[in-house]
Amino acid sequence: MTPRGTALVTGASSGIGAAVAAALVERGYRVYGTSRDPASVTDPAPGVEYLALDLTDDASIEACAAAAGAVDVLVNNAGESQNGPLEELPMEALERLFRLNVLGAVRLTQLLLPGMRARRRGRVVMIGSMLASFPLAYRSSYVASKAAIKGFANAARREVAPYGVGITTVEPGSINTGISERRTQYVADDSPYLAEYRTMLAALNANEAKGIPARRVAATVVRATEAARPRPLYAVGSNAPVVFALRRLLPRSAVERMVARRHGLR
Ligand SMILES: NC(=O)c1ccc[n+]([C@@H]2O[C@H](COP(=O)([O-])OP(=O)(O)OC[C@H]3O[C@@H](n4cnc5c(N)ncnc54)[C@H](OP(=O)(O)O)[C@@H]3O)[C@@H](O)[C@H]2O)c1
Description:
This protein is of the alpha/beta class. The protein is built from ten helices and nine strands.
């Protein structure tokens, strides 16, 4: 074992996960990264060992946890970005999203916590989204999934703290990872919401393209991982310090209007 221990980063084939995996290698961890299909990873992060993981499949989660063995740092990063008016989101799309963004991450955490507890050290980082703190129209399923994973982290933190295990959430803002191209979208061609939806989407994609690089999120994840007492919540990108300060000062309805306006919605 390396001096710093072993890290497992889900969804390390691209974007934030690849950057986090690379940063943890640089910090001296042995790093496992995951992909549904490790053989297809075109730009593997240097020094990262890839394992197969499909978070919508229980058997795959169990096999991945077994293959990783003793894990000191788990970064639950893999996720789907889903869009659409609430009225039009198909149930199967919602179920897949919650299996991937919430329940799969929870299951993997359940499998790795006993080892962390026994060794009396461990860190679990949930990659949430600033949208969980700043909800946006036409993103209800994604917002709810990121709020749900933060809820698991917030409530379970006290359970595992006496065992030297820290659970924290990192909320990225707009990060330039190309996630816009991989976003799943559910809106009918004759939807009454179509015009507004398109306005929101154009702003969302433009914000992502102007977003900060994934390595900035990785630096925050490293900070959360290495803190003696990790904070419950870290946020990075989209002017996080300023907008979280405004969120504390302004009424909730004013914050909702601010977020809507940033996405072209009056
Ligand atoms: N980019 C942003 O602006 C932004 C903002 C806030 C939060 N986030 C969150 O940050 C995380 C990473 O986002 P990103 O922008 O880096 O996106 P990304 O490049 O699309 O990465 C998503 C990762 O999830 C993995 N994945 C997809 N479906 C999976 C499944 N069923 N089982 C296991 N892994 C699966 C993918 O791996 P394979 O396809 O190789 O399996 C990929 O590595 C996500 O949770 C996202 O919601 C991103």
